Amino acid sequence: MMSQEEFGNQIFEAILEVESETELPAPPSHSSSLRSDVASKDNSQTAVVSIKGMTCHACVNNIQDTVRARPGIHSCTVSLEKAEGVVGFNPSLWTAAKVAEAIDDMGFEATVKNAEVGKDSLQPSTARRKAVISIKGMVCHACVNNIQDTVSQRPGVHSVVVSLEKEEGVFIFDPSVLSDDQVVDAVDDMGFEAKLIKSEG
Fold first, then answer.
1. 3-state class of 88 per DSSP?
2. Is 0.70 topped by the overall pTM?
3. What residues does each domain of the chain span?
4. Which class would CATH give 45-113?
5. Contact 129, 181 (CB under 8 A)
6. Which residues are listed as membrane-spanning (predicted)?
7. Which of 41, 58, 72, 183 is the most buried (most CB within 10 A)?
8. Class of domain 129-200
9. What is the largest CA-CA distance in the chain?
């Protein structure tokens, strides 16, 4: 007859055998998430945004912390001295114009200065948008030339044709860089009364 000690030893050996044959689940792999994160940062675009209205470094920190917390934003560095910010973002989620609008919504005056596409990102947008804008306050062709020359130098603007007789202008621009409102504001900031009539594209 088996003693109690021998019976206990057999039970213990059986438990060890079962444990040795049981495969522990593999730890979760983070490689896919890391690859996704790296891919999203490789597919990056950078926008330089002019920011007016900052008075101290608290404003700088507020903008940086708020913008960095947004999904699809890779980096945000703001300079109080230069009154501008450099923002890196995923172009599948953001455009330079939307980045500027996000900062503008915080109570600052933000406009896109320029936008650069990362080496591994999508090609620059070839989209074209047409905005017809009513322009009041022009008195001569010098006003026409001033608007055309000034606005056409803005990043993302392809062409500007202003009519003194019709008191309006036709603006062709890249909607990934500028919005209708920003084009209107660009003319309005020159001292004219500008209002969007229609846009398409």
1. strand
2. no
3. 45-113, 129-200
4. alpha beta
5. no
6. none
7. 183
8. alpha beta
9. 119
